[in-house]
Design a protein that fits this description.
By secondary structure, the protein is an alpha/beta fold. The protein has 2 domains: 106 residues, Aspartate Aminotransferase, domain 1 (Alpha-Beta Complex), CATH 3.90.1150; 245 residues, Type I PLP-dependent aspartate aminotransferase-like (Major domain) (Aspartate Aminotransferase, domain 2). It has a 7-stranded mixed β-sheet, sandwiched between helices. The chain has a 3-stranded antiparallel β-sheet with strand order 11-14-13, covered by helices on one side. It has a two-stranded parallel ribbon with strand order 1-12. The N and C termini lie far apart (44 Å). The chain binds pyridoxal-5'-phosphate (PLP). Pyridoxal-5'-phosphate (PLP) binds next to helix 3.
Length: 371
């Protein structure tokens, strides 16, 4: 007989998932109800309201997609990009590269703005791209590049797009709940995030938000959205119309309980306090790294507090250290991706993982492994 699966107790300080509070896990263990049950519909409405708080938006169309962050990304592109549309897509890490892939698969014509990994998107390059391509309809960029730990200036980038009459798609998977994400103040038209990063829920849900301008663009489409599951026109019947909700797909009921609880916890702490906690934990971790002579990949001015990318010291086998951290200390940290593989470690301070005891434990464990 195969035995039940009992996972080890890890401390998650990689690029996600982050530690999930027991309170969220307990919420997910409650009885499953029907996805059209009036009680569940009420829960959906409350999740939408709390997500508006997290995204700092009044957008009516704010809800969690029943799939991971990558599906939220895809929903933004397949709905907002029609075949032949020109899209300026910024690439300064892995996730910008995935946005590019989505533009191509949606039939869009990409205009790529490249910046070095570990640096933010350069707004001047975006201005130049709009000058050379005044017909560009969308600007797409990653706010918090989890592959490098760099944060881009979303307010400025969104303003450039507005000056050129383009819509903005922003990836805020790693920033939501960790650093300020101000959809309305910045004028972002479509944003997607993930449940398992700074919101500290389990993976598998993608909060998204769309502005009225974005909805108007979708309604004015002359072609059908190529994805049935992600077509907002269809999803809306389920998430938008309270009262006369129609079946589209079966929402993941228990994970929704988890997201609800995670958002209640964010509300209790206060969004600004959560941002301040991520910042404070980052400062403590940074002081510890500096004392160990470990260097950051990203300049201080654009460093993400929730994703600390540090250079692996000369002559160290980075994979062996990560393996030891996991086996001896039950501590997970992240490796480098792409060109940065083997050269950096990525230490996440996301959501519930951004705690004093984790910071101290991580510094202690890394010190033990490096000495
Ligand atoms: C994690 C992440 C994603 C993808 O989210 P999944 O839930 O893994 O699909 C997208 N963008 C960024 C910036 C991320 O950090």
């Amino acid at each position: 007989m195969t035995a039940s699966f009992i996972p080890p107790q890890r401390i998650l300080m990689g690029p996600g998932p982050s530690d999930v509070p027991q309170r969220v896990l307990d919420a997910m263990a409650r009885p499953t109800i029907g996805h059209l049950d009036p009680t569940f519909v009420e829960l959906m409405e409350q999740i939408k309201a709390m997500l508006r708080m997290a995204f700092q938006t009044q957008n009516a169309l704010t809800f969690p997609v029943s799939a991971p962050g990558s599906a939220g990304m895809e929903m933004c592109f397949v709905n907002l990009v029609e075949p032949g549309d020109k899209v300026i897509v910024c690439r300064n890490g892995v996730f910008g590269g995935r946005m590019l892939e989505n533009v191509k698969r949606s039939g869009g014509v990409p205009v790529i703005v490249d910046d070095a990994w570990g640096t933010p998107v350069d707004p001047q390059k975006v201005r130049d791209a709009f000058k050379a391509n005044p017909d560009a309809k969308v600007l797409a960029f990653v706010h918090a590049e989890t592959s490098t730990g760099a944060q881009s200036d979303a307010a400025t980038l969104a303003k450039v797009a507005q000056e050129h009459g383009a819509l903005t798609i922003m990836d805020c998977v790693t920033s939501l709940g960790g650093t300020p994400v101000l959809l309305d103040a910045w004028g972002i038209d479509a944003a997607y995030s993930g449940s398992q990063k700074c919101l500290s829920c389990t993976p598998g849900l993608s909060p998204v938000s769309f502005s009225e301008r974005a909805i108007a663009r979708i309604k004015a489409r002359t072609t059908t959205v190529q994805s049935w599951f992600l077509d907002l026109n269809l999803v809306l019947g389920y998430w938008q119309s309270a009262g006369k909700r129609t079946y589209h797909h079966t929402a993941p009921i228990n994970p929704m309980y988890g997201l609800y609880e995670a958002l209640v916890m964010l509300e209790e702490e206060g969004l600004e306090n959560a941002w301040a906690r991520h910042r404070a934990m980052h400062e403590t971790l940074k002081a510890g790294f500096e004392a160990m002579d470990l260097k950051y990949v990203v300049e201080a001015s654009s460093r993400l507090p929730q994703l600390n990318a540090i250079c692996v010291p000369e002559g160290i086998d980075e994979a062996a250290i990560r393996a030891r951290l996991l086996s001896e200390f039950n501590l997970e940290i992240g490796a480098g991706l792409g060109d940065m593989a083997g050269k950096i470690w990525r230490i996440g301070l996301m959501g519930h993982s951004a705690r004093q005891e984790n910071v101290e434990y991580c510094l202690k464990a890394l010190k033990a492994c490096l000495s």
